[in-house]
Prior knowledge:
Blueprint: E1 4-8, H1 35-41, H2 59-69, E2 77-79, E3 95-99, H3 108-117, H4 124-140, E4 146-150, H5 155-159, H6 162-166, E5 171-174, H7 181-190, E6 199-205, E7 211-221, E8 246-248, E9 250-251, E10 268-269, H8 272-284, E11 289-293, H9 310-321, E12 328-331, H10 337-341, H11 343-353, E13 361-368, H12 372-378, H13 394-407, E14 410-418, H14 425-439, E15 442-443, E16 446-447, E17 451-456, H15 460-465, H16 475-495, H17 504-531, H18 536-541, H19 547-552
Parallel strand pairs: 1-2, 1-3, 3-4, 4-5, 5-7, 8-11, 11-12, 13-14, 14-17
Antiparallel strand pairs: 6-7, 9-10, 15-16
Amino acid sequence: MTRFVLVPDTTLTYDYRSFPLLDFLPCAPSRMVPDKIYYFLRGRSPPHKPNGELLVAPYSIRRLEVSLRRRFPERDIAVSAEDMLQNFIKDDTSIIAVSTMDPLGLGPTTMSYYALFGGELYAWVWKEWDSLMARINALRRGKKAKLVVGGPGVWEFAIMRDMVEKYNIDLIFEGEADDILPDLFEQIEEDAIDSSMFSHGHLAFDENFRRVLQKDDKFLSRGVGTSAYPKVEDIPPIINPAQKGMTEIMRGCGVGCDFCEVTLRPLRYRPVEDIKQEVRVNLRGGFENAWLHTDEIWGYKHGKMFEPNEEELLHLFSEVQGIKGIHHTNPTHGRISIPAAYPEMLKKLSDVLDAGPHNWIGIQTGVETGSDRLAKMHMPNKTLPLRIGPDGSWQEIVWQGVYNETMYYWRPAFTAQVGQEGETVEDLMDTIAMVNRLSNSYAGQRPFEFTITPLVNVPLGRIKAKKFNFGGLTKEQLAVYYVSYRHLAKMARRDGYRDSRGNFFVRASVGSIISFGGSLMLRTVEKLAVKAGVDIEKIKRYGLPHTKEIRTLATLTRA
Ligand code: SF4
């Protein structure tokens, strides 16, 4: 008997050839990436035991598993591979729980493709979700098992509400559940939801970005106060290996960007011993890299005015990197202003992490805009402890950050938003200038190492408060896409083969597809931009007369 069957979102289970950024492949429209190319690039199927239990699963599923194991015996719970579900979904199964990130393709990266190409809203993420739901519903037909969906992507069902019925979903849970999951599952089994613990409804946002509960019988949530979140001692270490060697080091952020939901959650730092325990668990799954999940690494135990805590950061990274068998450690996300202002600290971290030409430290960073005005309007604290004005313009801070990162072998994957509230043509031209300048800059002999992905601004809170309505990209927004894809194509040509994993033939294939795909995407975006009236020759050079000065820009004051 398997009482609880835990199922990951299919798109989170593949290895995407371990190529940087290829994890975003399922965000592409399904009609534009042929099946054969998609199935090749998504890489290996996730390994499982002979009975179908996954040996490696996405981190979110591992969190559910360990929460349940605090109350229920191992035999009650299975983390199943998608094509082995028939081994677990039986007459006595009570809950099939699926965790998802972007089931209907409304996430920002997926939407950015939709904004660019228009047409049917059917990305690979949705196509994969369709087939997962079809498989689960066929297996549960005539049985008592309830289908419960959770994870960061569930807000999409509040937007496309009819999909709840279409997929025959019994309940959608929204929020963090580490501490209360066993209670939740028992209550769902018995059809007896305790209203002092859970509310029927989902969180929405009013015009002032305040959270309000929208009543809905198909949704369950925990409310909005700090009691709606688990304390750090209620987030136990995972017990089985997580995809990509991921471990979570903290939750929440607090920097306060006005488009970001993470900032509204309380800050919690996990103990280093728990983090190390998880890294060792992942090592058992064959991961010699530790991927430290956080929405803002530089906020880890930060000081006043969001000054980074060098001592604690060095301690964390050296403890993780010092684990026998770990060869590479990197955080998931971090702001650019800290590398800009603290090059010495960055260098020390690079020494600890053994960074070098064959070991770049990847980090995702939201630079969002090249405009001082928009940066101050939407993310006034993102530069702290630097200040736009006294410490330079936002573009100078970003430039200095990438300079220091390239010097010390850190490679940021930037996002830039278009469609931010209050955006003007001048703001977009500032972003174009920033991308061109970064793309043509050097740290010593090394060209700046970064990628940049343009996104359409989809403020989750506001999309919950209003209906999604998009009229396509303006000429200048398309120009931002164009310069970003121009830089991405350049990076794909430069790094496509070097960063691929596998034997010679696999690397050659992946490298060629990436490089070809980068050029193809650039040509496609260029065509759309030209059609919209973008002066490509002007846009390519926009902001570039200062190339010489860029090479010699003085280090910012804090350094
Ligand atoms: S710094 Fe990043 S995680 Fe923090 S509030 Fe801003 S966007 Fe959100």
